[in-house]
Amino acid sequence: EAGVAQSPRYKIIEKRQSVAFWCNPISGHATLYWYQQILGQGPKLLIQFQNNGVVDDSQLPKDRFSAERLKGVDSTLKIQPAKLEDSAVYLCASSLTGVEGYTFGSGTRLTVV
Amino acid sequence: KQEVTQIPAALSVPEGENLVLNCSFTDSAIYNLQWFRQDPGKGLTSLLLIQSSQREQTSGRLNASLDKSSGRSTLYIAASQPGDSATYLCAVDTWGKLQFGAGTQVVVTP
């Protein structure tokens, strides 16, 4: 089966600019997650979708981050305006039920200068 | 709140030695535990998934054990190779949410 697709692979922007990341999960996977991984740390959950509804966005900085999952398939994560501390790898993951584990995409490395 | 700790933070071994990576978690009410490998600048590759009812899982040179009652998991990598150099992350699924440790950075020297 095809894996979790993410784009772009790399992005460099200036602070205060906006950026968007795209994720296409494994076909049929109802649950989609966005994680932020700062260098040297483990990934931190930003938002969890079940189909096209938000299950948990408690750690999403809502003043600058937004995410949507239209039609319960692919998803977009946006940052506006970006700050230097947003420099990180943004990982998308999906799962069918959670019991079978999670599959991650290759991630998007964001550098804010 | 679930907290996941990985020790050691970094490990360097000569080729051929066995690797032992440790993971501990504070809340034993888990669905499963998953070990991942991450190469520099890349995404996460799943290595092993252990369900909460299981004690261990094996795949090739990799073996992972789970002791839910004590909140511990150990990943063993037998006969290490330079290609095993990477960061290894432990993640615990608690109530449908995956909580990660900070990882163990492994370097295997030829």
Topology, pairings included?
The complex is a heterodimer of chains A (113) and B (110).
Chain A: E1 5-7, E2 10-13, E3 19-24, E4 31-37, E5 44-50, E6 53-56, E7 65-68, E8 75-79, E9 88-95, E10 103-104, E11 108-112
Parallel strand pairs in A: 2-11
Antiparallel strand pairs in A: 1-3, 3-8, 4-5, 4-9, 5-6, 7-8, 9-10, 9-11
Chain B: E1 4-7, E2 10-14, E3 19-25, E4 32-38, E5 44-51, E6 56-59, E7 62-67, E8 72-77, E9 86-94, E10 97-100, E11 104-109
Parallel strand pairs in B: 2-11
Antiparallel strand pairs in B: 1-3, 3-8, 4-5, 4-9, 6-7, 7-8, 9-10, 9-11
Question: Can you put this structure into words, describing what you see?
Answer:
The complex is a heterodimer of chains A (113) and B (110). Chain A is mainly β. Chain A contains no helices and 11 strands. Chain A has strands at 5-7, 10-13, 19-24, 31-37, 44-50, 53-56, 65-68, 75-79, 88-95, 103-104, 108-112. In chain A, strands 2, 4, 5, 6, 9, 10 and 11 form a 7-stranded mixed sheet that branches. A 4-stranded antiparallel sheet of chain A has the order 1-3-8-7, with no helix packed on it. Chain A is globular, with a radius of gyration of 13 Å. In chain B, a hairpin with a 4-residue loop joins strand 7 and strand 8. The model of chain B has no long low-confidence stretch (mean pLDDT 94). With 110 residues, chain B is mainly beta. Chain B is 0% helix and 60% strand. In chain B, the strands form 2 sheets. In chain B, strands 2, 4, 5, 9, 10 and 11 form a 6-stranded mixed sheet that branches. Chain B has a 5-stranded antiparallel sheet with strand order 1-3-8-7-6, with no helix packed on it. Chain B starts with a strand and ends with a strand. The chains are: A mainly beta (113), B mainly beta (110). The A-B interface holds A 6, 31, 33, 40-45, 48, 55-56, 89, 91, 93, 98-107, 109 and B 4, 31-32, 34, 36, 41-46, 49, 51, 89, 91, 93, 96-103.
Oligomer: heterodimer
Structure annotation, total helices of chain B: 0
Give the biggest sheet of chain A: 7 strands, mixed
Radius of gyration of chain B: 13 Å
Helical residues, percent of chain B: under 10%
- Give start-end ranges of low-pLDDT stretches of chain B: none
Number of helices of chain A: 0
| Biggest interface and residues each | A-B, 26 and 24 residues
List the uncertain runs of chain A.
Answer: none
Largest sheet of chain B: 6 strands, mixed
The average pLDDT of chain B is 94
> Which term fits the overall shape of chain B?
globular
What is the CA-CA span between the terminal residues of chain A?
37 Å
**Global outline of chain A:** globular
Q: How many beta-strand elements of chain B?
A: 11
Task: Tell me what portion of residues of chain A adopts beta-strand conformation.
Answer: over 45%
> What share of the residues of chain B does DSSP label as strand, in percent?
over 45%
Radius of gyration of chain A (CA) equals: 13 Å
Head-to-tail CA distance between termini of chain B: 41 Å
Query: Which class do the helix and strand fractions of chain B yield?
Result: mainly beta
